[in-house]
Amino acid sequence: MLADLKICIVGLGYIGLPSAALLANRGYQVQGVDISPEVVATINQGEIHIVEPDLDSFVHSAVNSGHLKAALNPEPADVFILAVPTPFHEGFVPNIDYVLNATRAIASVVKAGDLVILESTSPVGTTEKVAEVLREAGIDTDTVHIAHCPERVLPGHIMRELVENDRIVGGTTPVASDKVAAFYRTFVTGEVLVTDARTAEMTKLTENSFRDVNIAFANELSLLCDKFSIDVWELIRLANRHPRVNILQPGTGVGGHCIAVDPWFIVHEGGEDARLIRTGREVNTRKTEWVVEKIQSEVAHFKTEKGRAPQVACMGLAFKPNIDDLRESPALWVFQQLVAKGIQPLAVEPNLKKHESLCLAPWQEAAQQADLVVYLVAHREFDNLVVQGQVLDFCGVTQV
């Protein structure tokens, strides 16, 4: 019975908490583990610390039913899911310290027959390192089923896509692959596809690198169109009328924990054989730098014409529309660069109620007060917004 199967999810962030709430509402006994006492306390009150549609009701229901409890330290379970960050060190060197630390944290309670699942997007070979850490802790990994099952969800649609999207399961052994796949089939309606651990790891990196390279093409077009005095939005609309062309939309850059990070995992290991993937990353980084240069240019022009510095409003700080996630956000980087250059823009992020280091301005007031309204993220709140000053649109808010 589901109620007899205990699940421990380590990491209660944008993937771990939705997964924990979903599984708890499906009848599993779930323990969520996080290193933050504030996060643990918030969840145990049936509340959430991140913004995601429907997550609040899932967590509230799961906690009230007694199926979800949060804690600082893991307890014995039948299934362990690691959903911790995998950032990179300086120089774009992959950082799997959180994964290794999470593995060490569960090592004292893992027993024979347990499933240990790495969901964190990881460099190729990380799942094998999880097994190695467990062996170093004295665990016979021949009796524990270890696999990688990367998350494949879109922020803003996580609760639905956790269930509906196909999943890739790659075990360190064929038996591990099959057992972990069987577990996911108890709650995933999409197809659960079985492979080995390294292929599963590379699949997720490939998906995000594909997106990154295609966005880079659109962003490079935007740079060229600015140079050629062409409307990039019209250009892409016209080019996409070709039956075999589907160019994505340009933006401020590429952010988030996945697309802006994962290609570097491939580049780090692939070296000179990852040329296109490296170039895509460099183009998208350059686009964000170019946005700062364009804003600086408009500020200087305003000063020349008006004899004073303009009030600039940075509209949107999240890494993509309609979420509150600032991880690797190009919009936030643009804002920070403008501050560093003495421009002092208004910070506008309608998906955040407050921020520990930013003084957030209401978007309606910012649009009315600013001499230069800079659209960095296409949040729904900005649609048909009445603006008094000049507009710089880097994400297509003003496009119909």
Description:
The strands form 3 sheets. Strands 3-2-1-4-7-8-9-10 form an 8-stranded mixed β-sheet, with helices on both faces. Helix 8 packs across helix 10 (262-270). The protein contains 13 helices and 14 strands. It is 42% helix and 14% strand. It folds into 2 domains: 2-196, Rossmann fold (3-Layer(aba) Sandwich); 251-393, 3-Layer(aba) Sandwich (Rossmann fold), CATH 3.40.50. The chain is an alpha/beta fold and 400 residues long.
Q: How far apart lie the N and C ends? A: 52 Å
One letter per element, helices H and strands E, the order comes to EHEHHEEEEHEHEHEHEHHHHEHEHEE
If helices are DSSP runs of H or I spanning 4 or more residues, what is the number of helices?
13
Q: Would you identify the regions where 5 or more consecutive residues have pLDDT less than 50?
A: none
Which architecture of the largest domain per CATH? 3-Layer(aba) Sandwich
Strand residue percentage = 5-15%
Question: The biggest beta sheet, please?
Answer: 8 strands, mixed
- Which structural class fits the helix and strand makeup? alpha/beta
> How many domains make up the 3D coordinates?
2
Helix content: 40-55%
